[in-house]
Amino acid sequence: MTILLGRRVRRWWRGKGHGVHSPFAFRFIRCVLRENGAYYASSELARMDNSEWLGVLFRLVCEFEPDEGISTGLTAGERCAVEMADSRTVIVSSGERDRIVMKCRGLSVTVVRDVLSSRAHWEDMKSGMRCGMTFTNGRVGIVVPRADLPRQDFEINF
Questions:
Q1: Per-residue 3-state assignment (H helix, E strand, C coil) for 94-156
Q2: Is the sign of the CA dihedral 80, 110, 86, 58 positive or negative?
Q3: Where are the beta strands (DSSP E) in 3-81?
Q4: DSSP string for residues in 15-31
């Protein structure tokens, strides 16, 4: 019980950016994952099912600006969020329904939609990384494999 409570408190604390020393991770947590401000598409996204997830996806596309496209099997709502974020983004269908891969400036940012059902795959992805950061809330996982980032994992609420 104490360990679980400790993890929850740490996740809540880190979710606000406290104790995060990497400038990239702090800004990513505060301005992308936990952003509460309104965007030009916020009101339209709020009317959709699963609006919190669509808001995170919208901000991820705005942050990484995928110039080589997004490879996935997007739902209709996810496709709408991506197109609202950047209508120039090329969406390439793939057989993988559990993850979204955004290709931008030689970087492949991967979003695992359901970490719980893909736990082994998620752990394999993390263990295969030599540099970069991962962010998860226990349901969704985001892998940012940038060579200039130290290897770190963050469990936060978003």
A1: CCCCCEEEEEECCEEEEEECCCCCCHHHHHHHHHCCCCCEEEECCCCEEEECCCCCCCEEEEC
A2: positive
A3: 69-72
A4: HTTTT---HHHHHHIII
For residue 76, what are its two tokens?
A: 């209709």
Pick the closest to residue 77 from 97, 100, 103, 57 (CA basis).
Answer: 57
Please, which residues have CB within 8 angstroms of residue 67's CB and are 6 or more apart in sequence? 103, 104, 105
Per-position pLDDT tens, the chain of length 158:
455 556 666 656 555 555 677 999 999 998 999 888 888 899 999 999 999 999 999 999 999 999 888 888 888 899 999 999 998 898 888 767 788 999 998 899 999 989 998 888 899 999 999 999 999 999 999 999 999 999 999 988 88
Cβ atoms 104, 67 nearer than 8 A = yes
Half-sphere exposure at residue 68, Cβ-oriented, CA atoms within 13 angstroms: 10
| Cβ atoms 29, 14 nearer than 8 A | yes
Separation of alpha carbons 149 and 61, rounded Å = 20
